[in-house]
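user: can you give me the structure for this one chain? tokens are fine.
assistant: on it. calling the predictor now.
[tool input]
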Amino acid sequence: MTRIRTLTLTVAALAASLVAVPAQAAETPPRTGFEESGGARWTSQPEEQRLLAAVDRASDRVSVARIGTTKQDRPVQLVRIGERPAQNKVLLICSQHGDEPSGRDACLSTIRDLAYAKDRQTRRFLERTTLLVVPTANPDGRAANTRGNSDGVDINRDHLALQTAEGRAMAAVIRDQRPDVIYDLHEYGATPPYYDKDLFDLWPRNLNTDDAVHDAAQTLSESYVRPAAADAGHSTGTYGIWTDPETGEPIKQVAGDGQERILRNMSGVKHSVGLLIESRVDPLTEAEQADEALNNRRRVNSQLAALDGLFDFTDARRGQVETATGLARLTGYTDTGPVYVGGADNDPAEPAEVIQDPPCGYRLTDDQYAQVKDELALHGVRSHGTYVPLRQSLRALVPLLLDERAPYHLTAAEPDTGC
């Protein structure tokens, strides 16, 4: 698909476009602070708010809503882009970690580009797909340039417990919108020569991910995102895996397990095609070492190239993805099969990590229910008062929340085995 390639700038074009541009007229598309500075600094929160307000006013295909408020009173916002309501939905979560800003700036310029695009191909895409974007998932962390939020909590470890305002806002969006694809933009620090690609990605490894959803996520990675990045001149690899620089063979896993607290894995548990994307922070060349702005532009451009692949995938595999996610959301009603409380797609679960014959449901005490009812509701888990049945769309999530065998359970409820 050439739509995003016509909107997204290459490194050279980006560098040229970010200098000596006259002041913007009222009717011209707004620019990010990153673009205005030639990549010398990241877009500030006030600049983000001005850009979002401008695209909201200028384009009927864009709406901006506040979906949460941080402890420091900053807005968590959701941008919806589409020509009309569409069944197919893609959700971008940008910069959950506040010190990983390149994905956020890629998201902001993409919002702008899609809002102002006039070509028929883009409009056709947006007639069939609704793009949802949380441009700054961790506003307090971005303001402080910290990984965690203002309480020091890593939001990307809060997608099960939902103890942060930011995590709760994202859970509500996923519950209400049921996106087909959840795409999570991050950055990483390289460890040469074993772990130093321009861009890494990873799909849901959690074993409770439906097979068809898992396979679609791998296809998104291997057949779309990585080739698009490679076409733009970026090297790619699998997040969390060190490789031998001579043979390219994996030699060590340092991250990327099946832990359900992480958005990439929770995406799969909730039947969305999930993908984590990680751009390299460290300079690649002596020129980038000498010029921070050059390095920053490469970071953002690699994210934009990967987004190119995401949109190609969305356009080409729309029907397949809708079928996979739709069927996955129905499988929980069959109430059969094991539930996994450990393991990953590259790490078979131990016997103790498999609930082979799950109970019919879980019984909570009144106190337990009062403790977790808000989180159940935010997840979209259905309950009958203090009784939570397994026979529901989010069947596998129920034991992860309520079974004492699950490593991150919210409370240890009483299993109901009297089916």
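assistant: here you go. The two ends are 50 Å apart (CA to CA). Residues 3-327 form a domain with the Aminopeptidase fold (CATH 3.40.630.10).
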